[in-house]
Amino acid sequence: MKQKIPIILAGTTVGIAAIGLMQAGNPANMGICIACFLRDIAGSLGLHQAAVVQYMRPEILGIVIGAFAVALIRREFRPVGGSSAMARFLLGFLAMIGFLVFLGCPLRMTIRLAAGDLNAVVGLVGLAAGVGAGVGFIKNGFSLGRATPRSAVNGYLFPGIFIGLTILFLAGASFIVASEKGPGAMHAPVFLSLAAGLIIGGLAQYSRLCLVGGIRDFLFFRDTYLLTGLGVIFTVALIGNIAVGAFNVGFEAPIAHNDGLWNFLGMALAGLCSTLAGGCPLRQLVASAEGNTDAAVTVMGLLAGAAMAHNWKLAASPAGVPVNGQIAVILGLLIVVGFALATITSKATTQRGVVDERASS
Amino acid sequence: MNERVVDARGLLCPEPMLMVKRAIEAAGSGTIKALADNSAARENIKRLGQSQGWSVEITEENGDYVIILKK
Q: Is A353 in Cβ contact with B8 (below 8 Å)?
């Protein structure tokens, strides 16, 4: 139990922040969604032109800076890189398409569950199926290979970009655009969002909170440490939703659609990609802030995937999932499964992992 | 007495855990020295070892985490 204090602290904070930010103006049944917020950031930088989902979400900026600061303080900032950058970009890209077909990352899925949105139950089953498939591939030898240490400046690039964006955003730089209506226009006061992000980022670094990891570790080892985080976020947000009268059980929910097949398949694709890439979008942000340049490439893939999901009309809306999005999810699943199988096959002739036995006196 | 070495440096979870789990299963008892370079892997290996009844000791060596598991 004592071991779980960090994850319980992080989960409680995320749950409270989600409800608080919704009350303060963030979109309903969302509060915080790493996938949706990266999509909004992609829009605010002009990477896509969907006018209703453009905003430089300070929560994301805060998470990166908070995690970076805590990693430095705890001497856990370690610049590494060089492990399958292109594959990670692609996994991030395809994961985001899956998330935007479901309409939420695992964090928002948990928050949607806690608001009584039954579509999120379908999403959870899909996510677990995707994570399970990913676990199966990894057990059978899938690996993106080792990262190796890099110079410090490499590790500073990603948090540096986010610190720079924060300064430009707060200074009112005109190239950063914001929605005038729609979910992108729904936001809490900037400094509240930024503060929430800083705290969540710091605690996520400290606790290593990862929602995909929660399901993964349970399937792998029956380990419940990270899964506890998911459970705590759910419980706290559930109590909060009931308290503020935002708990409504059903398949009709804000910023969601009720097409079960695509909720399932979208999250299955996202779960599979996230597992192969080593974690959910929140974990990728935090790992990037800790100096992992491979995770930073995954985040770039997430951002590009979010932009293209709107440019190519793949993303779902409350009206449902466009045909383009359905095709993209199927193609995405085929590509990732094919890639994973090909990786395992081509790895078969090489030594994976060093487990040698040494005699010692 | 044999010491198994698991080098999980440069790998993100769950691979480090998987490698240590396989080493634990293969060894049954004895000493396993696991190397990791990120805090998530370090903590996960520690939890995995403890859950299987192994004692766990963590030190740092040249910027890497050295996790010694004993049973």
A: yes
